[in-house]
Amino acid sequence: MNLNQEQLLIFTTVMQAGSFSAAARLLGKVPSAVSMSIANLEVDLDMQLFTRQGREPMATPAAHSLYQKTLYLLSEMNQWKQHANALSQGLESSFNVVIASELIYTPWIEYVLLLENTFPSLEINVFTAPQEEAIQMLLQGQVQFAFLFEREILDYRESFIEVFHETILPVVSQSHPLAQLKDVYLHDLAQYRQIVVTSRHLDIQPELLFSKTYWRTNQHHLAVSMMQENLGWGFLPLRSLQHIDQKKAKIQTLNVINFTQKCNYFVDLVWHKEHAHGTASQFLINYVKKQRTDKNTH
After folding, report:
1. Tell me: the pLDDT tens digits for 193-235?
2. In which band, very low, low, confident or very high, does the pLDDT at 97 lie, cut at 50, 70 and 90?
3. What pLDDT is attached to residue 124?
4. Which end of the chain, C or N, has fewer beta carbons within 10 A?
């Protein structure tokens, strides 16, 4: 069997037009060329697709059965050709991005939607990991981009642009001793166990560590469960809290003196400055740079 795209296109056009002559007009061909193509297709398939009794050919049950699948096949072939062309122009074979665990409710999806709309054939893979692991995934080349909280110490290989803000708040169970205090000071926090969302690798020091003792988890959802069970207090992003019924969950935020003003953090889109950028990567970098410039000029 030696099928080609033109044969399949002619077949679907005949099915849609209802006759060889009408299909020929739509395709800009002579009717004999359409008739010959269908005849060759029938030979290749070893089945009759059209009966030729009367003035116009009539589609057989086999033709009707194959028609819808042929439409799908042609669509797949067109997508394949578009993707191959995009790859030849420098489009990545896949596009990987990691979101810091605490940032899953931030508007990172807007950038994924932008890429999907601009490069429909691009395979996009989205992962989540604690911030420290997300940085390592980026530096090791496992992902092209990472959405991370701003950091005091930057690796020399990082490039980044601030894309939006997120606020983190200290949270505790309503039955925790800290919840009974109207005003909480940093030395109060230090006296109680802290639940920290951080890397699974125990040799990596967590960020935002305030307590003398702490427990670790690599997922902010797990951190919420631990706080609900009065196992400690911890920081949670505001957007995460907005997805939780705090009264029902029996958790509350703490009014920490001399800390509230420091809770608003930039969220950065980060990439490896030493890695080559494909078409989609360069497009995204240019887009966020322009977005940042536009914000600064307004």
Report:
1. 999 988 888 877 787 888 989 999 988 889 999 999 999 999 9
2. very high
3. 94
4. C
Task: Let me know the angle formed at the C-alpha of 136 by 131 and 142, rounded to the nearest 5 degrees.
Answer: 115
List Cα–Cα distances, 209 to 51, 70, 90, 198, in angstroms. 79, 60, 43, 10
Dihedral over Cα of 20, 55, 45, 39: its sign: negative
Burial status of residue 220 (CB atoms within 10 A of its CB: 0-12, 13-18, 19 or more): buried
Tokens linked to 258: 């001399």
pLDDT in tens, 109-157: 999 999 999 998 889 999 999 888 999 999 998 999 999 998 878 887 8
CB 112 within 8 A of CB 124: yes
E strands in 16-83: 50-51, 58-59
d(CA 74, CA 259): 60
Which residue type does 278 have? G
Per DSSP, the three-state class of 73 is helix
Query: What is the Cα–Cα distance from 140 to 143, expressed in whole angstroms?
Result: 8
C-alpha distance across the termini of the chain, in Å:
63
User: In degrees to the nearest 10, what's the CA dihedral of 230, 233, 239, 244?
Assistant: 10
What is the rounded CA–CA span in Å between residue 92 and residue 66?
Answer: 34
pTM here? 0.64
**Which 3 state secondary structure label does DSSP give 171?**
strand
User: What would the two tokens of residue 204 be?
Assistant: 């990596």
Query: Exposed/middle/buried for 223, CB within 10 Å: 0-12, 13-18, 19+?
Result: buried
Q: Cβ(254)–Cβ(241) under 8 Å? A: no
249 in Cβ contact with 224 (< 8 Å):
yes
In one-letter notation, the amino acid at residue 54 is G
